[in-house]
Amino acid sequence: MRRGEMPPRAARGTGALLLRGSLLASGRAPRRASSGLPRNTVVLFVPQQEAWVVERMGRFHRILEPGLNILIPVLDRIRYVQSLKEIVINVPEQSAVTLDNVTLQIDGVLYLRIMDPYKASYGVEDPEYAVTQLAQTTMRSELGKLSLDKVFRERESLNASIVDAINQAADCWGIRCLRYEIKDIHVPPRVKESMQMQVEAERRKRATVLESEGTRESAINVAEGKKQAQILASEAEKAEQINQAAGEASAVLAKAKAKAEAIRILAAALTQHNGDAAASLTVAEQYVSAFSKLAKDSNTILLPSNPGDVTSMVAQAMGVYGALTKAPVPGTPDSLSSGSSRDVQGTDASLDEELDRVKMS
Q1: What are phi and psi for residue 328, nearest 5 degrees?
Q2: Residue 41's domain spans which residues?
Q3: 35-52 in b/e burial notation, b at 16+ Cβ within 10 A?
Q4: For residue 339, is it within any domain?
């Protein structure tokens, strides 16, 4: 048998090296390259990342490690050559039905590695074909648990579920699945149109919601602004009223103080020499001034019985003034009586002089 040829039994048992020709005819994953089955030349050199399974007299003997190895001719025979590199297998496209009864066309890529060459050689007839079929069935099973929307959203969890299911079943085959990736998901045309309409409706809904939220926020801001403006206006009016009241109170107090000071000064002036004559003169001047302003602001006027007699009006006013200022004070009747007589005499003389001046004028 020449180097590189594969005996019939070896062809049935070396599924880890290549896939069957029926896989190519059915559109499944293509066969991968291998180094073939070398002959027993006593001294053998095993390449790195390969494991050669040796049988002695038809029974498993050992696995040759990379490097130099020596076998017994005729008794020892190399039956399987397993690659320890990571293997990439294309999972063919298949149909699957989701939880909401939508038929999908889906394919993927499988990444695996042979961890135990002995189990991969004697545990299963064709490891790659078995893993590929297991990946397809697991994919259909996992897709049946999800709805169409979740299939697109949960691709990572779907890949992880397929990897876990493959590793649980392929542990006895000496194979470990490293990753599984979904390549393409093909949706029926009608379903695709429905999905596009749903997306457009969802976008219109979001736009409407955002617009309504913007209108609401605008109305809230306007109302809040009006509220703050009214609060500030009322506070300003309150402060203005408080300030106005304080100003009026200060003005009244100032007027009262000024009037009290004027009264005090007037009282002090009246106590001086000829104070009563000055008071009589002031009363006469005020009478003449008031009489000159009659009928200027209103048509209704009040006149005394004899408006031309200034002397009688001054005498009457001074009599009232003298009666108020010369009232007796309890405790000093004598002194007040004498003082009153002197004041009345002085007042009469002053009045006579004032009357003469008015008549001359």
Answers
A1: -70, 145
A2: 37-84
A3: ebbeeeeeebebeeebbb
A4: no
The pLDDT value recorded for residue 220 is: 93
Residues 74/121, Cβ–Cβ less than 8 Å: no
Same-domain check for residues 120 and 158: yes
d(CA 14, CA 178): 22
Please report whether residue 193 resides in a domain. yes
Assess whether 47 and 124 both reside in one domain.
no
Q: In sequence order, which ranges of 46-174 are alpha helices (DSSP H)?
A: 117-122, 127-143, 148-153, 155-170
Q: 345: number of CA atoms within 13 Å, CB side?
A: 5
Whether residues 207 and 182 fall in one domain = no
Residues 270, 268: Cα–Cα separation, whole Å:
6
Residue 139 has pLDDT above 50, yes or no: yes
The set of residues, in sequence order, having a beta carbon less than 8 Å from that of 159 and lying 6+ positions away, is 179, 180, 181, 182
pLDDT given for residue 270 in this prediction: 72
Buried b (16+ CB within 10 A) or exposed e, 213-232: eeeeeeeeeeeeeeeeeeee
56: β partners: 59, 76
Interacting residues of 153 by C-beta distance below 8 A, sequence separation 6+: none
pTM for this prediction: 0.46
Same-domain status, 147 and 228 = no
Q: Is 155 in the same domain as 197?
A: no
pLDDT given for residue 45 in this prediction: 87
CA distances from 256 to 246, 263, 282 (A): 15, 10, 22
Average pLDDT value for residue range 89-112: 87
In the Cβ-directed half-sphere of 276, how many Cα atoms lie within 13 Å?
A: 25
**HSE of 281 in the Cβ direction (CA atoms, 13 Å)?**
12
Count: domains in the chain: 3
